[in-house]
Amino acid sequence: MLNGRFLVIDEDGSDFAAIKGLLSKEGVPVFHLNSAADFSPAIDFNPSFIFLSLANKNSIESIFTIKQHFKNLPIIVVADSGNNNLLPQAMEHGACEYINVKSAEQLSLQNIISIALSRNKYIAELEEGARDFESIKENSINAIFLNLQNGTILEANKGAEQMFGYTVEELRKIGRQGIVDLADPKLEKYLSTRAVEGKVRGEITGIRKNGEYFPCEFSSVIFRNSLGEERVSTIMLDISERKKSEEEKDILIRSTEESFSLIDKELSIVMYNNQFAQRYKAFFNKEVKRGDNIIDYVLPERREIVKEIYKKVLAGETLETEITVPGPDGINHVYLNRFKPAYDNNNNLYGVFVSSIDITARKKAQESLEASEKRFRSLIENSEDMIVLMDANREVTYVSPSFTKLLGYQPEEVLGKRPLHFTHPEDQQDALKLSTNALNTPGVKLNYRTKVVKKDGEYMHVEGTIINQLHVDGVNALVNNFIDVSAQKKAKDLLEASEIRYRTLFHLSPTPMFTYSDETFEFIEINKAALDFYGYTEEEMRALDVITIRPEYDQEKTRQNIERNRDNDFYQLHTIHEKRDGTIINVQVYNNKVVLDNKSLRLVQINDITPVIMMEEERERANNTLRQLNEQIQKRAEDLEASNTELRKIAWMQSHLVRAPLARILGLIDVLEEKDDELDFDVMLMKIKESSVELDNVIREIVSKTDVVNTGQ
Amino acid sequence: MKLEILLVDDDPTVIFMHKRLLAKSIPASNYVVANDGSQALEYIITNNSTDTNYLIFLDINMPVLDGWGFLDAIQEYDIAARCYIIMVTSSIDNYDKQKAEEYTQVIGFLRSPFNFKPA
Asked: What is the DSSP annotation of A198-247?
């Protein structure tokens, strides 16, 4: 029994008549159209089956038209021997069965329709699957290739075109070698693996049309198509973004100073960063390995504590510990460790995430800050400086212990009050202005001098600074810092009085004195004695300076002298000055360094030594005369000595040279007087004669020398 | 102990007169003549004998080494202790006599001419 509504498209109506005849027994409605082009929404029928006569013109195209109007409707083509050749084409384009109306009688039309229905359903499913697959292929951002083992590309999807920048035609032309870095050492290994195992997956470097290299993840499978031909399907995925992100993540993890680790429930190390590895290597001289038990990296004495920590964290707690351990550098390091439970994507407890950071420096800084705070607090509390802090309303929020000690007020007596409360009535107006000024100029230090009223009613002279630090975190106050200067004030008053006294002494002194600027050499003050001494009026002398008070030829030397002695607190020297009337005077200068009104001056005292110099010159002249006389006497003495020498020579000659021949003569005469016969008389006579001649010569020489003495030549 | 006599003078006439006086005064005496201080020094050093004393008649003014030079020179030798010196000079300068007294070896100062007659 057949159900449904049947439409027959037949131009000449013969096939319609035949089919109608065959279906007449079934009692089902059968409609007729001449051509598929006659479909119109106006035609009011809804066929379940369509019979299409292949004898029609454009019968194959009609299949498309039908399919556009009635998607998935089974189409049975009606053929005869004259158009059998069109059958394969019709089947390929969507017909699900055919019928030869001439032989139809021999077959059950019901069977044909049943087969057509089953086949149509199958074709519909197949087409749907193919469409889905095509859609996947076309919409995939991955590159999908149909290729051969040798790298020839047969087909490629849009994703491949987009990924590599080539059209499919270009990809077919260039093949694998145009899009994969052949220098990648992994390539050869991948190809051989695929050849042996039929499939391979991995990472490889791709090359885009613009020459850019990029990392790819790929999978490649060898299969045989319906014709039994060997084909390869290859899918490539551009992982440059992922790689970049992984690298960035890596940098992030590497750059952190914290050490991270993930510990599973069995306390095995699952993941860790470089800092973790480095730290544990430094401590234990051991390479950290995934799978190691974290307790093995804990100092034995802390193991039970650490186990307890993990136990608590695995129970859901988050803990923080601070431990001090001796570092490999020999100094103690302080670490802040955070233990947090770690969960997987399904929110199941996975283990413990541990982060740890070396806070030694921070700790030290904190300790140093605390020590410094303590020190400053101690300084403030023990200082003689009084410190008063005020808020923006100028109300006292703090007074230092010295305030209480020196002024006598207890903190509670002044806290919340304005400082005017203890300011001298004469100075209150100025004090008010000062604090207003400070409020308007944050960060500017303002100096002041005022009088404050002590609790016992006495006044105290104070000097201080006020600075607005309301904006400085941790201070947030007008900071008023002052000291008792009553003693200094008194001393200063005394000093001023003394200065007046000494100034009077300076001006009344009979000794010429003046002061001059150490920098400009100008006279600052000149006393009356100096004006009298030099003969100038004060105005005239002020027009000069300490250099030009000298004669011109001596000025350069003076300048050098002054420069040389600039750093000496005192010096004295002998120099010459010039009076108004041009008289050059010798003076002894006593030069003292003095500081008056913060200016460096020189105080000079002049002593006229011209009379002394004149006396010295007179004495020098007398000495010269005496020296000349002495020289004359000396000369005379030398002359006398020369004469004496000659005289001594004469005496010596007389004593020795005269006496020698004379003694010989006398001796010879003595011998002759003996009248010894044995004596040769002539010889004796000759000896006497020789001695006599010698005596004569000596006497002549003496006479000659005596003449020399007498004449002085 | 033996005694040796040295006559030291550069003047042959003086030596002649010394010899005559010695012949008369000490007839059996032997003597040695030296013409200056250096000859006399050489003699006594060369012929030094510890059992001999020397009596030396020494002139002051002589060439090469004078009387003073001789006196200074013998101070270096132990022989000085065995020298007995009589200075013989024609000089009448008292300075010479005073100087001679400074030497311990000088035992006499004679002014020529002289004889050994009692004064």
From this structure: SEEEEEEEEE-TTS-EEEEEEEEEEEE-TT--EEEEEEEEE-HHHHHHHH
